[in-house]
Amino acid sequence: MKLTGVELRKVRMPLVAPFRTSFGTQTARELLLLRVATDETEGWGECGTLADPVYSPEYVDGAADVLRRYLIPALAARDRLDATNVGPALSVFHGHRMAKSALEMAVLDAELTACGVSLARELGAVHDRVPCGVSVGIMESIDHLLEVVGGYLDEGYQRIKLKIEPGWDVLPVRAVRERFGDIMLQVDANTAYTLADADLLARLDPFDLLLIEQPLAEEDIVGHAELAKRVRTPICLDESITSARSAAAAITLGACRVVNIKPGRVGGYLEARRIHDVCAAHGIPVWCGGMLETGLGRAANIALAALPGCVLPGDTSASGRYYHTDITAPFVLDDGHLPVPTGPGIGVRPIPELLDEVTTSTEWLPL
Ligand SMILES: CC(=O)N[C@@H](Cc1ccc2ccccc2c1)C(=O)O
Ligand SMILES: [Mg+2]
């Protein structure tokens, strides 16, 4: 398969409601899509970076720059192109895992489409539908939070995840537990706490949460291991897990008992599968995280979420959780599940007129 060119496309999709986390409030999702053209087919990749480097060090314009100047030229220089040699070809460049993931995803989509194999089959999926959880932002009042959580439970979501930060943690968790009983409930701090907050975080223990996601800083693996001795609720890592090696280290140090796998954060779906396998070997449950993807990234994440070790509902929510209109056919919750795409490659394609409506720029890089 020969690479003939890559299209970089920036899109901006308004969110159905502001989404507040410990790192800020977002009202729209700006992200980068890639279309890889080859001599046989084309493939689509999605880069999960935010517009600003507030979740991780990457951001949209930085990803576009590193793809344009380094990653895409490095691929074009290869005579033989398949998805398994994208990682090695890009390993000379440090970091930029979300940008690398988008390029690998597009090549993987093109390659699998050409040979008629689904991403789910390629990754080793064992389910044809996956149970879905939902991520709930920080709200301005407990009443509004309870209204929103009630709505998601009525829609059929099987797990509720509450964003927390200092000042919005014990009260919202207690209110949701008291109102809705023994639902599957977890929290995500997005690194907002420090080890000095250990006693505060231990006040969440009576509420039988499934996990506390990324309470401390991305680099603070030792801090999470220390926190795990002082808090009963299982620690789950997100931002800290950037590769199979970092997952093995975190597990060995006792820094986490659960892992949120995000293909973009770890450099791609092939590394995501390796993390899944490392965690499974250590008896560590995993689930598929979310980056408010369009239907393209959502389709690929659902394939990953169908792997056997993904034993907890992921943030693979329906398209309507974030967007009035997706750029693909919408993913609609059915009995609390989403179907695993069965078509070749990622199994979905953008709908041209919907994609054009949200496109803010496109750039064609011939190769
Ligand atoms: C579903 C969920 O909570 N995802 C991330 C946080 C996140 C990720 C990407 C975002 C992009 C735009 C606006 C908010 C965003 C929040 C997380 O698990 O930590
Ligand atoms: Mg998270």
Automatic annotation (TrEMBL):
Q: Which cofactor does it need?
A: a divalent metal cation
> Is Metal-binding among the key words of this record?
yes
Q: Which GO terms describe its molecular function?
A: metal ion binding; O-succinylbenzoate synthase activity; racemase and epimerase activity
According to its UniProt record, the EC number is: 4.2.1.113
Q: Write out the entry's keywords from A to Z.
A: Lyase, Magnesium, Menaquinone biosynthesis, Metal-binding
SUPFAM superfamilies per the UniProt record, alphabetical: Enolase C-terminal domain-like, Enolase N-terminal domain-like
Q: Which domain of life is it from?
A: Bacteria
Keyword Magnesium recorded: yes
* Gene3D superfamilies for this protein: Enolase-like C-terminal domain, Enolase-like, N-terminal domain
- SMART domains noted in UniProt: MR_MLE
Domain named Mandelate racemase/muconate lactonizing enzyme C-terminal: residues:
142-234
**InterPro entries (alphabetical):** Enolase-like_C_sf (IPR036849), Enolase-like_N (IPR029017), Enolase_C-like (IPR029065), Mandelate_racemase_C (IPR013342), Mandelate_racemase_N_dom (IPR013341), OSBS/NAAAR (IPR010197)
Q: Which GO terms describe its biological process?
A: menaquinone biosynthetic process
The protein depicted here goes by the name o-succinylbenzoate synthase
